[in-house]
Design brief:
It is a single chain. With 423 residues, the chain is α+β, with helices and mostly antiparallel strands. It has a single domain, classed as Cytochrome P450 (Cytochrome p450, Orthogonal Bundle). The strands form three sheets. Strands 1-2-8-5-3 form a five-stranded mixed sheet, covered by helices on one side. A three-stranded antiparallel sheet has the order 4-10-9. It has 16 helices and ten strands.
Length: 423
Protein backbone atom coordinates (compact mmCIF):
# COMPACT_ATOMS: atom_id res chain seq x y z
CA UNK A 1 0.00 0.00 0.00
CA UNK A 2 1.52 3.30 -1.16
CA UNK A 3 0.38 6.90 -1.01
CA UNK A 4 1.70 9.88 -2.94
CA UNK A 5 -0.27 12.73 -1.34
CA UNK A 6 1.62 15.44 -3.21
CA UNK A 7 1.04 14.10 -6.71
CA UNK A 8 -1.15 15.70 -9.34
CA UNK A 9 -3.54 12.74 -9.59
CA UNK A 10 -4.17 12.71 -5.84
CA UNK A 11 -4.80 16.45 -5.79
CA UNK A 12 -7.31 16.12 -8.62
CA UNK A 13 -9.12 12.95 -7.56
CA UNK A 14 -8.19 11.52 -4.14
CA UNK A 15 -11.10 9.05 -4.28
CA UNK A 16 -9.30 7.01 -6.94
CA UNK A 17 -6.39 6.52 -4.54
CA UNK A 18 -8.75 5.62 -1.69
CA UNK A 19 -10.41 3.04 -3.92
CA UNK A 20 -7.04 1.48 -4.73
CA UNK A 21 -6.01 1.43 -1.07
CA UNK A 22 -9.30 -0.14 0.00
CA UNK A 23 -8.87 -2.85 -2.62
CA UNK A 24 -5.46 -3.98 -1.34
CA UNK A 25 -5.18 -7.09 0.78
CA UNK A 26 -3.59 -5.30 3.72
CA UNK A 27 -5.15 -2.21 5.28
CA UNK A 28 -1.97 -1.37 7.24
CA UNK A 29 1.50 -1.07 5.74
CA UNK A 30 4.69 0.97 5.95
CA UNK A 31 5.36 3.58 3.27
CA UNK A 32 9.12 3.89 2.76
CA UNK A 33 8.87 7.18 0.90
CA UNK A 34 6.78 8.91 3.55
CA UNK A 35 8.49 6.99 6.36
CA UNK A 36 5.11 6.45 7.99
CA UNK A 37 2.64 3.67 8.63
CA UNK A 38 -0.50 4.01 6.53
CA UNK A 39 -3.69 2.93 8.28
CA UNK A 40 -6.87 2.38 6.27
CA UNK A 41 -10.12 0.55 6.93
CA UNK A 42 -13.04 2.10 8.76
CA UNK A 43 -12.69 -0.05 11.88
CA UNK A 44 -8.92 0.42 12.06
CA UNK A 45 -9.13 4.19 11.68
CA UNK A 46 -11.85 4.47 14.30
CA UNK A 47 -9.76 2.33 16.67
CA UNK A 48 -6.64 4.47 16.22
CA UNK A 49 -8.48 7.77 16.60
CA UNK A 50 -10.24 6.53 19.73
CA UNK A 51 -7.21 4.88 21.39
CA UNK A 52 -5.32 7.83 22.86
CA UNK A 53 -3.31 5.61 25.20
CA UNK A 54 -1.48 3.68 22.47
CA UNK A 55 -1.69 6.31 19.73
CA UNK A 56 -0.36 9.68 20.88
CA UNK A 57 -1.30 13.07 19.42
CA UNK A 58 2.21 14.42 19.97
CA UNK A 59 3.02 14.09 16.24
CA UNK A 60 -0.23 15.61 15.00
CA UNK A 61 1.30 18.98 14.11
CA UNK A 62 4.82 17.79 13.32
CA UNK A 63 5.56 18.55 9.64
CA UNK A 64 5.25 15.59 7.29
CA UNK A 65 8.06 16.88 5.10
CA UNK A 66 11.39 17.04 6.95
CA UNK A 67 12.35 20.62 7.77
CA UNK A 68 15.68 22.16 7.02
CA UNK A 69 17.77 23.09 10.04
CA UNK A 70 17.07 26.79 9.47
CA UNK A 71 13.30 26.28 9.24
CA UNK A 72 13.33 24.06 12.33
CA UNK A 73 15.23 26.72 14.31
CA UNK A 74 12.63 29.33 13.36
CA UNK A 75 9.69 27.03 14.14
CA UNK A 76 11.12 26.41 17.60
CA UNK A 77 9.77 29.88 18.41
CA UNK A 78 6.28 28.40 18.28
CA UNK A 79 6.55 27.39 21.91
CA UNK A 80 2.83 27.14 22.64
CA UNK A 81 1.95 24.53 25.27
CA UNK A 82 0.06 21.45 24.03
CA UNK A 83 -3.55 22.01 25.01
CA UNK A 84 -5.95 20.46 22.53
CA UNK A 85 -5.09 19.19 19.07
CA UNK A 86 -1.57 17.96 19.93
CA UNK A 87 -2.14 17.17 23.61
CA UNK A 88 -2.39 13.82 25.36
CA UNK A 89 -3.82 12.87 28.75
CA UNK A 90 -4.12 14.36 31.28
CA UNK A 91 -3.60 17.79 29.69
CA UNK A 92 -6.01 17.08 26.87
CA UNK A 93 -8.81 15.95 29.18
CA UNK A 94 -8.40 19.05 31.34
CA UNK A 95 -8.42 21.63 28.55
CA UNK A 96 -11.10 19.84 26.54
CA UNK A 97 -13.40 19.80 29.56
CA UNK A 98 -13.04 23.58 29.77
CA UNK A 99 -13.84 24.03 26.09
CA UNK A 100 -16.82 21.68 26.31
CA UNK A 101 -18.26 23.84 29.06
CA UNK A 102 -17.95 26.94 26.87
CA UNK A 103 -18.66 25.61 23.36
CA UNK A 104 -22.01 24.08 22.32
CA UNK A 105 -21.77 20.43 21.33
CA UNK A 106 -25.31 19.98 19.95
CA UNK A 107 -27.12 21.47 16.97
CA UNK A 108 -29.75 23.10 19.19
CA UNK A 109 -27.21 24.79 21.46
CA UNK A 110 -25.06 25.85 18.52
CA UNK A 111 -28.06 27.47 16.86
CA UNK A 112 -29.00 29.26 20.07
CA UNK A 113 -25.51 30.60 20.69
CA UNK A 114 -24.18 31.20 17.20
CA UNK A 115 -27.14 30.98 14.81
CA UNK A 116 -27.78 34.74 14.45
CA UNK A 117 -24.07 35.44 14.07
CA UNK A 118 -23.60 32.84 11.31
CA UNK A 119 -26.80 33.95 9.54
CA UNK A 120 -25.69 37.59 9.57
CA UNK A 121 -22.25 36.80 8.18
CA UNK A 122 -23.81 34.57 5.51
CA UNK A 123 -26.26 37.26 4.47
CA UNK A 124 -23.57 39.94 4.23
CA UNK A 125 -21.36 37.77 2.04
CA UNK A 126 -24.25 36.84 -0.29
CA UNK A 127 -25.25 40.49 -0.65
CA UNK A 128 -21.69 41.32 -1.66
CA UNK A 129 -21.48 38.48 -4.21
CA UNK A 130 -21.38 39.35 -7.88
CA UNK A 131 -22.14 36.39 -10.13
CA UNK A 132 -23.16 38.19 -13.30
CA UNK A 133 -19.79 36.90 -14.56
CA UNK A 134 -18.08 33.69 -13.38
CA UNK A 135 -17.26 34.12 -9.71
CA UNK A 136 -15.22 31.90 -7.41
CA UNK A 137 -17.53 30.44 -4.78
CA UNK A 138 -14.49 29.33 -2.77
CA UNK A 139 -14.12 32.98 -1.78
CA UNK A 140 -17.44 32.65 0.03
CA UNK A 141 -16.51 29.21 1.40
CA UNK A 142 -13.33 30.64 2.92
CA UNK A 143 -14.61 34.00 4.09
CA UNK A 144 -17.63 32.69 6.01
CA UNK A 145 -15.79 30.40 8.45
CA UNK A 146 -12.84 32.79 8.64
CA UNK A 147 -15.04 35.67 9.80
CA UNK A 148 -17.19 33.44 12.02
CA UNK A 149 -14.18 32.04 13.89
CA UNK A 150 -12.98 35.60 14.52
CA UNK A 151 -16.42 36.44 15.90
CA UNK A 152 -16.51 33.29 18.04
CA UNK A 153 -13.08 33.96 19.54
CA UNK A 154 -13.57 37.70 19.84
CA UNK A 155 -10.71 38.60 17.51
CA UNK A 156 -10.84 41.77 15.39
CA UNK A 157 -12.05 40.89 11.90
CA UNK A 158 -9.74 43.55 10.44
CA UNK A 159 -6.93 41.04 11.00
CA UNK A 160 -8.76 38.24 9.15
CA UNK A 161 -6.83 38.52 5.85
CA UNK A 162 -3.50 38.32 7.67
CA UNK A 163 -4.68 35.47 9.90
CA UNK A 164 -5.77 33.60 6.78
CA UNK A 165 -2.34 34.00 5.21
CA UNK A 166 -0.55 32.86 8.37
CA UNK A 167 -2.86 29.85 8.77
CA UNK A 168 -2.47 28.83 5.13
CA UNK A 169 1.31 28.96 5.56
CA UNK A 170 1.15 26.87 8.73
CA UNK A 171 -1.06 24.25 7.04
CA UNK A 172 1.32 24.05 4.08
CA UNK A 173 4.31 23.70 6.40
CA UNK A 174 2.72 20.86 8.39
CA UNK A 175 0.76 18.97 5.74
CA UNK A 176 2.37 20.02 2.48
CA UNK A 177 5.66 19.48 0.68
CA UNK A 178 7.21 22.95 0.66
CA UNK A 179 10.61 23.78 -0.79
CA UNK A 180 13.43 24.72 1.63
CA UNK A 181 12.93 28.38 0.74
CA UNK A 182 9.17 28.20 1.33
CA UNK A 183 9.74 26.46 4.66
CA UNK A 184 11.57 29.52 5.98
CA UNK A 185 8.70 31.90 5.15
CA UNK A 186 6.08 29.46 6.40
CA UNK A 187 7.92 28.89 9.67
CA UNK A 188 8.03 32.65 10.24
CA UNK A 189 4.30 32.88 9.50
CA UNK A 190 3.54 30.06 11.96
CA UNK A 191 5.47 31.73 14.75
CA UNK A 192 3.89 35.09 13.93
CA UNK A 193 0.39 33.59 14.21
CA UNK A 194 1.28 32.22 17.64
CA UNK A 195 2.72 35.56 18.76
CA UNK A 196 -0.39 37.33 17.50
CA UNK A 197 -2.64 35.11 19.64
CA UNK A 198 -0.32 35.46 22.63
CA UNK A 199 -0.21 39.25 22.32
CA UNK A 200 -4.01 39.49 22.13
CA UNK A 201 -4.46 37.35 25.24
CA UNK A 202 -1.65 38.99 27.21
CA UNK A 203 -2.93 42.46 26.39
CA UNK A 204 -6.45 41.68 27.57
CA UNK A 205 -5.20 39.97 30.72
CA UNK A 206 -2.90 42.90 31.57
CA UNK A 207 -5.70 45.43 31.11
CA UNK A 208 -8.19 43.35 33.04
CA UNK A 209 -10.57 43.95 30.11
CA UNK A 210 -11.09 40.41 28.90
CA UNK A 211 -13.22 41.40 25.96
CA UNK A 212 -15.80 39.45 23.96
CA UNK A 213 -15.91 35.94 22.60
CA UNK A 214 -14.33 32.71 23.67
CA UNK A 215 -11.03 34.38 24.55
CA UNK A 216 -12.85 36.56 27.05
CA UNK A 217 -14.68 33.53 28.46
CA UNK A 218 -11.42 31.62 28.85
CA UNK A 219 -9.81 34.54 30.67
CA UNK A 220 -12.80 34.85 32.96
CA UNK A 221 -12.63 31.11 33.63
CA UNK A 222 -8.95 31.52 34.43
CA UNK A 223 -9.84 34.18 37.02
CA UNK A 224 -6.16 35.18 37.45
CA UNK A 225 -5.38 31.68 38.73
CA UNK A 226 -2.77 29.62 36.88
CA UNK A 227 -4.15 26.45 38.43
CA UNK A 228 -7.27 27.00 36.30
CA UNK A 229 -5.48 28.01 33.11
CA UNK A 230 -2.22 29.80 32.45
CA UNK A 231 -2.09 32.79 30.13
CA UNK A 232 -0.02 30.69 27.72
CA UNK A 233 -2.69 27.99 27.74
CA UNK A 234 -5.41 30.51 26.92
CA UNK A 235 -3.30 31.81 24.04
CA UNK A 236 -2.61 28.25 22.85
CA UNK A 237 -6.32 27.42 22.87
CA UNK A 238 -6.96 30.53 20.79
CA UNK A 239 -4.22 29.42 18.39
CA UNK A 240 -5.68 25.92 18.10
CA UNK A 241 -9.18 27.21 17.41
CA UNK A 242 -8.26 29.96 14.95
CA UNK A 243 -5.86 27.59 13.21
CA UNK A 244 -8.29 24.71 12.79
CA UNK A 245 -11.65 26.45 13.11
CA UNK A 246 -11.90 28.01 9.67
CA UNK A 247 -9.61 26.17 7.29
CA UNK A 248 -11.30 22.79 7.75
CA UNK A 249 -14.81 24.26 7.54
CA UNK A 250 -13.82 26.11 4.36
CA UNK A 251 -12.81 22.81 2.80
CA UNK A 252 -15.99 21.08 3.94
CA UNK A 253 -18.22 23.91 2.70
CA UNK A 254 -16.53 24.04 -0.70
CA UNK A 255 -16.93 20.28 -1.12
CA UNK A 256 -20.59 20.38 -0.04
CA UNK A 257 -21.29 23.21 -2.49
CA UNK A 258 -19.60 21.36 -5.37
CA UNK A 259 -21.71 18.28 -4.72
CA UNK A 260 -24.89 20.36 -4.52
CA UNK A 261 -24.19 22.20 -7.77
CA UNK A 262 -23.37 18.93 -9.53
CA UNK A 263 -27.10 18.14 -9.64
CA UNK A 264 -29.85 20.77 -10.04
CA UNK A 265 -32.23 18.59 -8.05
CA UNK A 266 -29.94 18.73 -5.04
CA UNK A 267 -29.49 22.49 -5.27
CA UNK A 268 -33.23 23.07 -5.43
CA UNK A 269 -33.91 20.95 -2.33
CA UNK A 270 -31.38 22.73 -0.14
CA UNK A 271 -33.44 25.90 0.07
CA UNK A 272 -36.56 24.53 1.74
CA UNK A 273 -36.13 20.82 2.50
CA UNK A 274 -34.50 20.77 5.92
CA UNK A 275 -34.36 16.99 6.07
CA UNK A 276 -32.55 16.74 2.75
CA UNK A 277 -30.25 19.62 3.73
CA UNK A 278 -28.99 17.74 6.77
CA UNK A 279 -28.60 14.50 4.79
CA UNK A 280 -26.64 16.37 2.13
CA UNK A 281 -24.24 17.83 4.69
CA UNK A 282 -23.55 14.44 6.30
CA UNK A 283 -22.99 12.73 2.96
CA UNK A 284 -20.64 15.53 1.86
CA UNK A 285 -18.68 15.07 5.08
CA UNK A 286 -18.49 11.33 4.46
CA UNK A 287 -17.76 11.43 0.76
CA UNK A 288 -15.35 14.38 0.74
CA UNK A 289 -13.97 14.99 4.23
CA UNK A 290 -12.03 18.22 4.66
CA UNK A 291 -9.46 16.29 6.69
CA UNK A 292 -8.72 13.00 4.96
CA UNK A 293 -5.52 12.12 6.83
CA UNK A 294 -4.32 12.62 10.41
CA UNK A 295 -1.14 11.79 12.30
CA UNK A 296 -0.64 9.63 15.36
CA UNK A 297 2.46 8.26 17.12
CA UNK A 298 2.52 4.85 18.79
CA UNK A 299 3.50 4.85 22.46
CA UNK A 300 4.08 1.08 22.52
CA UNK A 301 4.19 -1.83 20.09
CA UNK A 302 0.66 -2.13 18.69
CA UNK A 303 -0.75 -5.07 16.76
CA UNK A 304 -3.68 -3.96 14.65
CA UNK A 305 -5.41 -6.03 11.99
CA UNK A 306 -2.58 -8.57 12.19
CA UNK A 307 0.20 -6.01 11.68
CA UNK A 308 2.56 -4.92 14.46
CA UNK A 309 3.51 -1.24 14.48
CA UNK A 310 6.59 -0.63 16.67
CA UNK A 311 6.85 1.90 19.47
CA UNK A 312 7.43 5.39 18.08
CA UNK A 313 5.85 4.50 14.75
CA UNK A 314 4.51 7.54 12.96
CA UNK A 315 1.08 6.74 11.54
CA UNK A 316 -0.92 8.51 8.85
CA UNK A 317 -4.55 7.66 9.56
CA UNK A 318 -6.44 7.66 6.25
CA UNK A 319 -9.84 9.11 7.11
CA UNK A 320 -10.79 9.60 3.47
CA UNK A 321 -10.17 5.94 2.68
CA UNK A 322 -12.05 4.90 5.85
CA UNK A 323 -15.06 6.95 4.75
CA UNK A 324 -14.99 5.04 1.44
CA UNK A 325 -14.61 1.58 2.97
CA UNK A 326 -16.85 -0.74 0.89
CA UNK A 327 -17.27 -2.99 3.92
CA UNK A 328 -19.26 -0.18 5.54
CA UNK A 329 -20.70 1.80 2.61
CA UNK A 330 -22.24 0.32 -0.52
CA UNK A 331 -20.92 2.06 -3.65
CA UNK A 332 -18.82 4.41 -1.51
CA UNK A 333 -17.70 6.57 -4.46
CA UNK A 334 -21.30 7.50 -5.26
CA UNK A 335 -22.61 10.65 -3.59
CA UNK A 336 -25.94 9.54 -2.14
CA UNK A 337 -27.42 11.72 0.62
CA UNK A 338 -30.09 9.12 1.34
CA UNK A 339 -27.68 6.26 1.95
CA UNK A 340 -27.74 4.42 5.26
CA UNK A 341 -25.05 4.68 7.91
CA UNK A 342 -23.76 8.03 6.60
CA UNK A 343 -23.67 9.27 10.19
CA UNK A 344 -20.91 6.77 10.95
CA UNK A 345 -18.39 8.80 8.95
CA UNK A 346 -15.14 9.85 10.58
CA UNK A 347 -14.87 13.35 9.12
CA UNK A 348 -14.80 14.85 12.62
CA UNK A 349 -12.63 12.08 14.06
CA UNK A 350 -13.65 9.75 16.86
CA UNK A 351 -13.14 9.24 20.57
CA UNK A 352 -11.70 11.80 23.02
CA UNK A 353 -10.37 14.00 20.20
CA UNK A 354 -13.67 14.18 18.30
CA UNK A 355 -13.79 17.69 16.82
CA UNK A 356 -14.83 20.20 19.49
CA UNK A 357 -16.20 22.49 16.78
CA UNK A 358 -18.32 19.93 14.93
CA UNK A 359 -21.62 21.57 15.90
CA UNK A 360 -20.39 24.97 14.73
CA UNK A 361 -19.13 23.53 11.43
CA UNK A 362 -22.47 21.82 10.75
CA UNK A 363 -24.29 25.06 11.57
CA UNK A 364 -22.15 26.98 9.09
CA UNK A 365 -22.65 24.40 6.36
CA UNK A 366 -26.43 24.15 6.73
CA UNK A 367 -26.86 27.93 7.06
CA UNK A 368 -24.71 28.67 4.02
CA UNK A 369 -26.21 26.00 1.76
CA UNK A 370 -29.79 26.94 2.69
CA UNK A 371 -29.21 30.65 2.13
CA UNK A 372 -27.26 30.34 -1.12
CA UNK A 373 -29.75 27.92 -2.70
CA UNK A 374 -32.66 30.10 -1.61
CA UNK A 375 -31.19 33.41 -2.73
CA UNK A 376 -29.43 32.15 -5.87
CA UNK A 377 -31.66 29.36 -7.26
CA UNK A 378 -30.16 29.61 -10.75
CA UNK A 379 -26.54 29.25 -9.65
CA UNK A 380 -24.51 26.79 -11.73
CA UNK A 381 -20.93 25.66 -12.02
CA UNK A 382 -19.09 27.53 -14.75
CA UNK A 383 -18.44 25.65 -17.98
CA UNK A 384 -15.19 23.76 -18.09
CA UNK A 385 -14.71 23.46 -14.33
CA UNK A 386 -12.32 20.70 -13.29
CA UNK A 387 -11.82 20.06 -9.61
CA UNK A 388 -8.37 20.66 -8.14
CA UNK A 389 -7.55 20.46 -4.45
CA UNK A 390 -4.73 22.15 -2.62
CA UNK A 391 -1.71 19.87 -2.42
CA UNK A 392 -1.75 18.35 1.05
CA UNK A 393 -1.45 15.05 2.89
CA UNK A 394 -4.41 15.92 5.11
CA UNK A 395 -6.51 18.92 4.08
CA UNK A 396 -8.88 18.60 1.14
CA UNK A 397 -9.85 22.11 0.01
CA UNK A 398 -10.78 23.07 -3.55
CA UNK A 399 -8.51 25.67 -5.06
CA UNK A 400 -11.49 27.27 -6.84
CA UNK A 401 -15.18 26.73 -7.53
CA UNK A 402 -16.20 28.97 -10.46
CA UNK A 403 -19.94 29.60 -10.73
CA UNK A 404 -22.32 31.66 -12.83
CA UNK A 405 -25.99 32.53 -12.92
CA UNK A 406 -27.87 30.17 -15.21
CA UNK A 407 -30.63 31.86 -17.27
CA UNK A 408 -33.99 31.24 -15.55
CA UNK A 409 -35.75 28.15 -16.77
CA UNK A 410 -32.59 26.32 -17.74
CA UNK A 411 -31.15 23.61 -15.56
CA UNK A 412 -27.47 23.46 -14.73
CA UNK A 413 -25.68 20.52 -16.30
CA UNK A 414 -24.32 18.11 -13.72
CA UNK A 415 -20.63 17.41 -14.06
CA UNK A 416 -18.99 14.02 -13.82
CA UNK A 417 -15.79 12.75 -12.30
CA UNK A 418 -13.54 14.97 -14.44
CA UNK A 419 -15.56 18.08 -13.76
CA UNK A 420 -16.23 17.77 -10.07
CA UNK A 421 -16.95 15.34 -7.26
CA UNK A 422 -18.19 11.97 -8.39
CA UNK A 423 -21.93 11.70 -8.00
Amino acid sequence: MRLDPFSGPYSRDPATTWRRINATARSISYDDDLEMWLIAGHDNVRTVLSDTARFSNAATLAPITALTADAADILAGLDAPAVAVAADRPQHLRTRAILRALMPATAVRAEQQWGPLVAARTNDLIVDMKVTEPADLMHFAVQLPLLVIHDVLGLPTTAAPQVRAWTDDFAELVWGNPSPEAQIAQAYSSVTLWRYCADIVNGRADRGDYGPGLIGELLRYRNNDDSNLTIAEVAALALNIVGAGWITTAGALGNALAHALADPGRWAQLADNEHYLNLHVEEALRHSPAIDGWLRLTTTDVTLDGVTIPTGGRCLVLIGAANHDPAVYAEPDVFDPRRGRAGQHLAFGAGPHYCIGAALARLELTTALRALAGRLPDLAVADGFRQQFKTSAALRQLTRLPVRQQPPGRCPIAHGTTAGPRS
